[in-house]
Each structure stands twice: as C-alpha cells, then as structure tokens.
Amino acid sequence: MTVSSYTAGQVGADTTRRWLIAAALYFLAAASTIHLTSNGRDIATIWPANAILLALLLAEAEPRWLLVLSAGMFGNVAANVITRGTIAAPLLFSIANLIEVAIAAKLTGFSRTSDGLLSSPGAALRFLVTAGVFAPCISGLLGASTAYLVFREPLGQSFSMWVLSDGFGLVIFTPVLLATFRGEFVDCFRSKSWRKRFEMIALLSTTALVTYAVFYVAERPLLFVLFPPIMIVTFQAGRLGTKTALVIVALIGGVATMQAHGPITMLADGSIAQAQLFQAFIGTLLLTSLPFAGEVTKRARFIAALIEHDKQMMEKATTDPLTGLLNRCGFDFMVEHLFGRRDEMRSVSIIAIDLDYFKSINDRWGHQAGDQALCHLARLLRAQVRSKDVIGRLGGDEFLILLPDSDINQAELIGKRITAAARNEPLAMDDTSVLLLSLSIGVATVLPGEPFSDLARRADQALYAAKAAGRSAVRLAS
Questions:
Q1: Is residue 131 within 8 Å of residue 108, measured between CB atoms?
Q2: What are phi and psi of 434, to 5 degrees?
Q3: CATH architecture of 328-476
Q4: Contact 56, 68 (CB under 8 A)
Q5: Alpha carbon distance 468, 478 (integer Å)
Q6: Is 1 exposed, middle or buried (0-12, 13-18, 19+ CB in 10 A)?
Q7: Which of 48, 81, 230, 447 has the smallest number of CB atoms closer than 10 Å to its CB?
Q8: What local confidence, expressed as pLDDT, does residue 187 receive?
Q9: Is the Lipid biosynthesis keyword given for this protein (predicted)?
C-alpha cells in the first residue's frame, strides 16, 4: 500500500466517523425532543437538534457542508419516522431544518474568525436576530405548511411554534455546542485554578438547584428568582458560564413544563399556551443575559489587553534590549524588593563583573562583535546562577548579580564557575577565529545594617583589585 493510498484511507475513515457522530447526535437530540415536548403531531416546544449542525459548521474554518447536512438529513428523517410514524412529514421537516441551518451558518459565519457568538453586545444581538428570528422564519414557512398539510395542525399556530422552538433551540444550544466542539470548555477549565474551578461548578450547581426548586418545588410562580443566579454566573464565569446556565434552565424548565410542573402551568392553561409562555420566558432570559455576557466578555478582553500592555511596557522599562537582562532600573527595583526582606534570609551577596579588554574587542572586531560578546556573556551568566538570583547589566560591560541566601564562600564559588565557563566556552567570531572572554570579578557579602550602596561599592572595589592583580580573576571584598 502506498503512502498516498494509506493517507486517503485515513481521511475516508475520519470522514465516516464524523458523519456517524453528527447523524447520531442529531438523531438523539431530535427523537428525545419530539418525545418529550410534542404529541407526535404538532411542532416540538424547543428544537436543539439544529444547533448541533450549526455548531459543527461554525467550528471549522472550512465547513464540511455535505457531510454535516447529509448527516443531519439522515438523523432528522430517522427521528421523525420513529416518533411520528410517517415518511412524508419527516422529509419535508428535514428539508426545512437544513434550509434553516444553512441560512444561519452563512449569516453567522463571521464567528469562525471572531472571538465567538457572544464576544460583545453587538455580536450577541446579531446572533439573536439571525439565528433566533430570520433563519427560523424562512424555514418555518415550509415546516408550518407541512404540519398543516400532513397533520392538519393550525397553520398560524404551527408557524409561531416553529419559529419560537427553532429560534430558541439555535440561540440557547449553539453557543454551548460551538464552545464544546472548539474545546473552549476544556481550555477554560485547565486555565483556571482549582478555587476558580470549584467556584464555577458551585455557581452552575446553584443555578440548577434554584431552577429545580422553581419548577418542581415552589407552590407559586417564582420565575423572577432565576434571574439573580444567572446574572451572578454571567459576571463571575463570563460567557461560557452564561451559555451553560441558560441550557440548564431551558432543559429543566422545558421538561418540567411538558410534565405539567412548575410556574408556567400555573400561569397558562393548555399545552400550547404553556409552551408559548415558556418560550417567551426563555426569550426574556436570552435578551437579558446574552448582551450582558457579551459586555462582560468585551470588558474582560479589554482589561486583559491593558494588563498585557502594562506588562510589555514594564518589561521594556526594566529590560536591557541587547542582552535581555535587567537594566539599571529593573535591577534597582529587584534590589529594593529583596533588600526589604533581607532579615528573612541568612545572608545576601553580590558579584560585580567587568569584561576585560572590552574596548579592544570593539576596536579590533567592531561594535557588532562587542554586542555579540555581551550577549554571549549574558548567556553564560544565566547558565551559572540559580533561578532566584538576579542579574543586571548596569551599562557598557558592567554586570551585577544579586545572590539571596548566599554567603561569601558560595558567592566566590559562583564567581569562579563564571570565569571557568568564559574560558571553556569561546565565542566564534568567524569561520577561523574565536574569542576567549576574560572577566574580572569582585565578590562581597552584606554586613549587619549595611545599605546596598555600600555593599555594591565594596564589590566594585574588589573588582578593581582583580583588575590590578592582572585581570581574569575573582577577588573578595574586605
């Protein structure tokens, strides 16, 4: 078997697997919805199955139209035949649903390259109008006509039920399914601390408990009680939390209403009126929560951008652009931070480093070679110190290393390691020439009550003693 044929076989197997998964998901969603929210003849109260297809189309940059729509067609026909017992209606209902999904996918295709359907209040409202009103109205013409011609259901009532059930199904379930297919829930969960994870789970669990209490326990119509937990989820957990909370309310409330439980049955008589009132309630939740979720997401992105900008500005202000080490400003900041708690450390030492004959390097090889030598030295220093040690380039060829929890002997050992590394790792200047760096190093350990300026001065005096002794040496401060 050739590589190309093996690859083609893999692609074919993947396509088949995706088709089977899409068809199975649609069948399960459609069959359970018809069974739970319809009498087998009328339009289902809420229709989440189309949201599966829409989310699959929006999840990829290049949607697989034929694969997704054909899988939806098969799942739709199978679910309708099993639950309704006819073949004419399933075919027409399936065509109407595919038209709806295609229109919604085309009009909301911008979401594939944006931050999501709820990235801002404007995006949320556009999605509500497109998927919640326009696409269901177009498909509802065929769907309602099918219900009237095949089952003799009232045309106007069937059309309104179709628009409401399909619209709410798309608006409620598409964002959640899209986030699931894109892996956003997994990424969000992994990015949060355990405390934030438990907080999000607790908020959603509270929403589920309050919803259950409103629809199964309360003896009065307390629908307004659902708004506070959803708003709290919106502000604490963002758009992903809002999507999940709305699905929880829709599922628990929809099943309870179809089972003649809850506040909706207290406020309306008859299954049709109850279904329409429940849809109106869900619509109110959507129009209240989704724009807020979009605004919360927008503000969170703005704050994150400000934090990142401040971080970048801080790095530019405190980092030497040539070597990537701390500059004088950044080094002084770290010194102030560490010296402020030096009583917690057993000792603090400092190493002063000067690159010998740096001027002659520039004169012989040019300033670019001098920059290469400084960068090479910076790499050597990073490799020889501990992660908690602080390295700074204070200017020219002058470097300082602050060593927390280090006495004079440890600091001297590190200084000798640095000079040995400089001798053992020459810098290649061209194909035939290498440069051995020579370093003069002064080491000092802080005395009781000594300020940093005096410590640095003593390390600098030791450095000049190393230079006076012939360079390429380590000297300890008195």
A1: yes
A2: -130, 155
A3: 2-Layer Sandwich (3.30)
A4: yes
A5: 16
A6: exposed
A7: 447
A8: 83
A9: no
**DSSP sequence for 415-427:** HHHHHHHHHHSPE
φ, ψ of residue 60 to 5 degrees: the values are: -115, 145
**CA–CA distance, 73 with 69 (Å, rounded to integer):** 6
235 and 209 in contact (C-beta within 8 Å)?
no
pLDDT of 11 = 58
- Exposed e or buried b per residue across 183-213, where buried means at least 16 C-beta atoms within 10 angstroms of its C-beta: ebeeebeeeeeeeeeeebeebbeebbebbbe
Average pLDDT over residues 27-48: 75
Hey, what long-range contacts does 343-348 have (CB within 8 A, 24 or more apart)?
345/404, 345/405, 346/405, 346/407, 347/405, 347/406, 347/407, 347/445, 347/446, 348/402, 348/403, 348/404, 348/405, 348/406, 348/445, 348/446, 348/455
Report which residue type is found at 125: L
Question: What residues have CB less than 8 Å from 394, skipping those under 6 apart?
Answer: 327, 328, 331, 400
Look at residue 38 and give its three-state secondary structure.
Answer: coil
Beta bridge partners of 353: 399, 441
Q: Convert the pLDDT of each residue in 355-398 to its tens digit.
A: 888 888 888 888 888 888 899 999 999 999 988 899 999 888 89
6 pLDDT band (50/70/90 cuts)?
Answer: very low
Q: How high does pLDDT run on average in the chain? A: 84
Q: Which of 97, 198, 186 is nearest to 139 (CA)?
A: 97
- Is 320 within 8 Å of 262 (Cβ atoms)? no
What is the Cα gyration radius of the chain?
A: 35
User: Which contiguous run of DSSP H or E holds residue 428?
Assistant: strand 427-428
Which residues are paired to 391 by β-bridges?
401
Q: Are 351 and 401 in contact (CB under 8 A)?
A: yes
**Which tokens sit at 373?**
């030598």
Give me the residue spans of the domains in the chain. 3-311, 328-476
H-helix segments, 319-389: 328-339, 358-365, 367-384
pTM of this prediction? Answer: 0.57
**pLDDT (tens digit per residue) in 261-319:** 889 989 888 776 787 788 778 778 877 776 777 677 677 777 778 888 788 887 788 88
For 144, 290, 332, 378, the CA distances from 320, given in Å and listed in that order, are: 70, 46, 13, 11
Cβ atoms within 10 Å, residue 174: 28
The set of residues, in sequence order, having a beta carbon less than 8 Å from that of 456 and lying 6+ positions away, is 350, 352, 400, 444
